[in-house]
Amino acid sequence: MSCGEPHETDCAEVLDHLYEYLDREMPDGDRAKFEQHFDECSPCLEKYGLEQAVKKLVKRCCGHDDVPTGLRSKVMGRIELIRSGQAVPEQPVVDPAQVPRESAPLRARGDAGGDAGHLA
C-alpha cells in the first residue's frame, strides 16, 4: 500500500514494521520516524488505527486464555524462518491436543444430531 505521496519513510516500510511499532519493539529513533510518517500519511494512520483496535480487541477477548507451553518460541522461530526467506514447514504451530476444549471450533448445527436442516 502506498498513498502515492513522497515520504522520508516509505509506506511499505511503515506497514512492514507496524506491529513492531505497536508492540514498542523498535528503537526510539525509528518510532519517531513512524510518528512523523503517521502525521503526514492518512492511509497509514488509518491502517495503524485499525491494527491497534484489533490488537486491543484480541487482548480483551483472548487475553486470559492459557497459552500452551513453548508456543511463543515456536511462533518466534517461524517468524525468523519467514524473515530469513527459508521455507516454512507445513505443520501446526500448536498440537491440537494442547488446545483447551472451550477454544475448539464449534461443530456445525447439522453435525449436532438434530433436524437443523429439516423443515416439517
TrEMBL record:
<dbReference type="InterPro" id="IPR024020">
    <property type="entry name" value="Anit_sigma_mycothiol_RsrA"/>
</dbReference>
<feature type="domain" description="Putative zinc-finger">
    <location>
        <begin position="11"/>
        <end position="44"/>
    </location>
</feature>
<protein>
    <submittedName>
        <fullName>Mycothiol system anti-sigma-R factor</fullName>
    </submittedName>
</protein>
<feature type="region of interest" description="Disordered">
    <location>
        <begin position="86"/>
        <end position="120"/>
    </location>
</feature>
<feature type="compositionally biased region" description="Gly residues">
    <location>
        <begin position="111"/>
        <end position="120"/>
    </location>
</feature>
<dbReference type="InterPro" id="IPR027383">
    <property type="entry name" value="Znf_put"/>
</dbReference>
<dbReference type="Pfam" id="PF13490">
    <property type="entry name" value="zf-HC2"/>
</dbReference>
